[in-house]
Structure formats: structure tokens, C-alpha cells
């Protein structure tokens, strides 16, 4: 997949101190040869040939409809797996994939790397220290401009499982669950607002967390990249943590916390005179290496 060639191999595997790229396989023979050459790796002709080597773990970044069969093959071959999202095409398939790995004693991870962003780690620390108070509301947005493109598997639910929600919303929901805990219930609207491909280009979900907090996740394939600031908003009884641009592939964005002192009384004027708050700007880290 493109994400492997662009990010995970050069920024993750090759920079990790406990991993070595050995063999690659892509369903596109030309891409397979190019990636093997680019990263000085052996080229496997099939998933079976790859699994017949002495590799210990496999990273799966193929179109979503192939994840299930490929992961099961890895598990049967005794290979640990890091799989891109979505894990499976349905909840039932994803659970079955998890069960297979458990049965075979295989370690399975899903590539939710947004939780390793440096600002997000600092925000989580503030929440765990009680600085945000009782969690009340969270919002995460991840959007981009993704026009109709020939051969784009994400634009067909038969190969991608869905559109904007399943492709990008999974990152957002995983991130909000890291901050506020498990989601108990979820409802969603989807639509093709601009583009006319088979998958949705617009999605907005309403979340109800087990702790009583509310949340929203909005994902779009029809908002220009520079216009979408990929907002992250976390609110509690003692303040808020607000960010723009921290949800994405590259270490970027800005974050600030506006936190109140204990014992604040009701203000009938509802004056909003606080300044920019506490800037959260830790040293950027390589999220792909951490994931």
C-alpha cells in the first residue's frame, strides 16, 4: 500500500532499533519490484512465498478487503501482525481475525498511530492527572480532498469497506477512546455531498461514552486539504484542550489547554476573557516508529 511506501517503511521499520525490513509483497507486480528495489529488500511473488521465509512479523497495508485472508494466513504461519485499519470489513470479521490470532498465540496490532503524537500524549497526561476535570465532550475531525480517481479502492465499499468514516474515522474514534474511555453507543449520518463514487465522501458520528461524556467525529473526502484543520477538542468540568493539525500523518499542529482553578463560581456575565491558555508544544516524535 501507498502508506507503507510513503511512511511506515522509511519512517517506521527502517528507523526502528528492533526491526529489519526483509521481504516485501504487493499485489501489483510493478509496485512490488519498485518497493523491493527502493528499500533493498527481497521481493516475494505471493503472500505464501513471503510467509515461507524466516520473517517474524508482517505489516499488512493492502486494500481492506484483503486483510482478513492475509491476516489468517500470517497467523497460521506463526507470524505476528501489524495491520492497517480497518482491521476487517465487518465487526464480525474483525472479531474472527482477533480470535484466530489469540488461538494461534499471535500478537496482533492495528495501526492506530495518532495516539503516539507528542501533543496527544501530553493531553492524555493532563487528563489522567485530573486537570480537565470530569470529561464532558470531545470532538475529532480528519478530512481531505479525495476526488474520483480510477482504481482508488477506498472509493468503493467492496474493496475499502466504506469511505470517509471507515478510512479516517477509525483514527478519530480510537483517539477519543484513549482520552475519554470506551464508546458505549454511536449513531452516524453519511452522504455523498460532493463526489459521486460508491463510498461516502461525508460522515458525522455522535458518540456516547461509557463515562457519560458525549463526542462527535466528522470525516470528509470533500474538504480541501488546506481548509481542513483536523480539529481536536477535549472539554471537561475544569477546562478544555484544543488543537488544530495534530491529527494527521506528519508531526505538526498546535495545541493549547485552557484550565480553570477549582472552586470557580457561576458567572452571570459569562465573560470569556481568558487568553491563549497553556501552550502544549512537546518535541515532535516519529509516530510511525512508535507505532
Automatic annotation (TrEMBL):
InterPro entries: Gfo/Idh/MocA-like_OxRdtase_N (IPR000683), Gfo/Idh/MocA_oxidrdct_glycsds (IPR050463), GFO_IDH_MocA-like_dom (IPR055170), NAD(P)-bd_dom_sf (IPR036291). Transmembrane segments: none annotated. Residues 4-109 form the Gfo/Idh/MocA-like oxidoreductase N-terminal domain. Keywords: Oxidoreductase. Residues 121-241 form the GFO/IDH/MocA-like oxidoreductase domain. GO terms for molecular function: nucleotide binding; oxidoreductase activity. The keyword Oxidoreductase applies. PANTHER family: BCDNA.GH03377. This is Gfo/Idh/MocA-like oxidoreductase N-terminal domain-containing protein. It comes from marine sediment metagenome.
Amino acid at each position: 500500500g501507498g502508506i507503507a511506501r510513503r511512511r511506515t517503511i522509511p519512517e517506521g521499520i527502517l528507523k526502528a532499533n528492533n526491526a529489519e525490513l526483509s521481504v516485501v509483497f504487493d499485489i501489483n507486480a510493478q509496485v512490488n519490484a519498485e518497493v523491493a528495489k527502493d528499500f533493498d529488500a527481497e521481493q516475494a511473488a505471493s503472500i505464501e512465498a513471503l510467509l515461507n521465509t524466516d520473517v517474524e512479523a508482517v505489516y499488512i497495508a493492502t486494500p481492506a478487503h484483503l486483510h482478513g485472508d492475509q491476516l489468517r494466513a500470517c497467523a497460521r504461519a506463526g507470524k505476528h501482525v501489524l495491520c492497517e485499519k480497518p482491521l476487517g470489513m465487518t465487526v464480525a470479521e474483525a472479531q474472527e481475525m482477533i480470535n484466530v490470532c489469540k488461538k494461534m498465540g499471535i500478537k496482533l496490532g492495528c495501526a492506530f498511530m495518532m495516539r503516539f503524537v507528542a501533543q496527544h500524549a501530553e493531553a492524555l497526561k493532563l487528563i489522567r492527572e485530573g486537570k480537565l476535570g470530569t470529561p464532558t465532550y470531545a470532538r475529532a475531525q480528519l478530512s481531505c480532498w479525495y476526488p474520483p480517481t480510477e482504481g482508488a479502492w477506498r472509493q468503493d465499499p467492496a474493496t475499502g469497506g466504506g469511505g470517509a468514516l471507515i478510512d479516517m474515522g477509525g483514527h478519530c474514534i480510537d483517539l477519543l477512546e484513549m482520552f475519554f474511555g470506551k464508546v458505549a453507543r454511536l449513531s452516524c449520518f453519511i452522504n455523498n455531498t460532493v463526489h459521486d463514487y460508491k463510498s461516502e465522501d461525508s460522515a458525522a458520528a455522535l458518540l456516547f461514552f461509557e463515562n457519560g461524556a458525549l463526542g462527535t467525529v466528522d470525516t470528509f473526502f470533500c474538504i480541501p486539504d488546506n481548509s481542513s484543520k483536523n480539529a481536536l477538542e477535549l472539554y471537561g468540568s475544569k477546562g478544555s484542550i484544543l488543537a488544530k493539525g495534530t491529527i494527521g500523518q506528519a508531526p505538526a499542529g498546535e495545541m493549547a489547554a485552557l484550565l480553570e482553578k477549582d472552586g470557580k463560581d457561576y458567572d452571570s456575565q459569562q465573560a470569556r476573557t481568558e487568553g491563549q491558555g497553556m501552550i502544549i508544544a512537546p518535541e515532535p516524535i516519529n509516530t510511525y516508529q512508535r507505532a
